[in-house]
Design a protein that fits this description.
The complex is a heterodimer of chains A (196) and B (172). Chain A is of the alpha/beta class and 196 residues long. Chain A has 2 domains: 39 residues; 142 residues, L,D-transpeptidase catalytic domain-like (Beta Barrel). Chain A contains 4 helices and 11 strands, in the order ααββββββαββββαβ. Chain B has a domain of 102 residues: L,D-transpeptidase catalytic domain-like (Beta Barrel). In chain B, 31% of the residues are buried. Classes of the chains: A alpha/beta (196), B alpha/beta (172). At the A-B interface, strand 6 of A face strand 6 of B.
């Protein structure tokens, strides 16, 4: 009896260990990404939590800290919701103030000419709602720029410096943020670390 | 005799059918004042109900003006929030790159052959507009490439009411 139970336990441990291995040790290649998105369902986790926040920015404002790799939405005085983000790589880095000009459910994606020069295998257009759409399920358009705050189809890139200028959240997080913001919400993108 | 009766019957049906056909006149209007949730959509906002094929202009007093519109074909429909960025009388039409690949010309000047009709309301730096039409029979259908189409008389009415910066909500 005890022997049998230990056997099951051992088997269970082995499975868990293998899963961990797959989760943390798999190389980030296109093939592995396919496995990842089937395991995780394409960005449907969340990393949101509430933090206390300096009051100098006002409320109902989005602050993106590139060095914290967090997006803060100040939902009330002295407190913000903090979401993990994927941020622009070195030369696509930008900072400044914008306002949300459009909110889109299942945004379509048209890669820029530069993205297609870099990676000629990219399609000219990906329809909104496609599970392979890199913008995920919601997008907040920033001013008249091509930059957006959006979801993802590649959740393992959240928390990294990988984008071409966009700010990337988990799908669950962008839905939450989408429902809290309006057209006109101020967005401050800064290099400065706010909460470290 | 039987054949004669059938012919008469057929003629009658044809005449009645023509008489019952809706009048598709570009100068007609579809607007009416209806009750509306002003608490969610304050005065001056526009709500486009895609499945209903109607556009509401909130009057802020629990009422809205309701207009019949054409919306995007199912694959061109979009949902979300935006704002009125610009208003233009007698707009020229520059088809998008995708439309040109499908055979559209580079430019169509204002006039009876311009599908934007007599007014265009530009939405949030996008390619989408609320505009008039030169094909009034399409109003009430899912016919466009994502734009919101209205009868010319209706869009002229909305054009005078709406302000730049007004919120626009496109719902399912």
């Amino acid at each position: 009896m005890t022997m049998k139970r230990t056997g099951i336990l051992r088997f269970g441990l082995a499975v868990v260990a293998m899963l961990c291995l797959v989760t943390f040790a798999a190389p980030q290649k296109a093939a592995a990404q396919g496995i990842f998105s089937t395991i995780f369902g394409g960005g449907w986790q969340s990393g949101r939590h509430e933090v206390s926040f300096p009051t100098r920015y006002g409320t109902r404002v989005i602050i993106v800290s590139l060095s914290d790799r967090r997006l803060y939405y100040v939902h009330k005085k002295g407190a913000a919701l903090s979401y993990p983000i994927g941020v622009p790589t070195g030369r696509a880095m930008w900072t400044g103030v914008q306002h949300v000009s459009q909110k889109r459910v299942n945004p379509p994606w048209t890669p820029t000419a530069e993205m297609r020069r870099e990676n000629p295998s990219l399609p000219a257009h990906v329809r909104g709602g496609d599970p392979r759409n890199p913008l995920g399920v919601r997008a907040l358009y920033l001013g008249s720029t091509l930059y957006r705050i959006h979801g993802t189809d590649a959740p393992w890139t959240v928390g990294q410096n990988v984008t071409h200028g966009c700010i990337r959240l988990y799908n669950n997080d962008i839905i939450d943020l989408y429902n809290r913001t309006r057209v006109g919400t101020k967005v401050i993108v800064t290099n400065r670390s706010i909460l470290g | 005799m039987e054949r004669f009766a059938a012919a008469i019957g057929f003629a009658l049906v044809a005449v009645l059918g023509i008489a019952a056909m809706p009048v598709s006149d570009a100068s007609a209007s579809t607007r009416e004042i209806v009750a509306f949730e002003s608490s969610r959509y304050p005065m001056g906002s526009i709500v486009i109900d895609t499945s209903e094929r109607r556009l509401y202009y909130s009057l802020g007093n629990g009422q809205a003006i309701k207009y019949k519109v054409a919306v995007g074909k199912p694959r061109h429909q979009w949902f979300g929030d935006t704002f009125v960025e610009k208003k233009k009388k007698n707009p020229g039409w520059y088809p998008t790159a995708r439309m040109r690949r499908a055979g559209a010309p580079r430019y169509v000047p204002p006039g009876p052959r311009n599908p934007l009709g007599i007014r265009a309301i530009y939405l949030g730096w996008s390619e989408y507009r609320i505009h008039g039409t030169n094909s009034p029979h399409s109003i009430g259908r899912a016919a466009s490439s994502g734009c919101i189409r209205m009868l010319n008389d209706d869009v002229a009415d909305l054009f005078e009411r709406v302000h730049i910066g007004a919120p626009v909500h496109v719902i399912r």
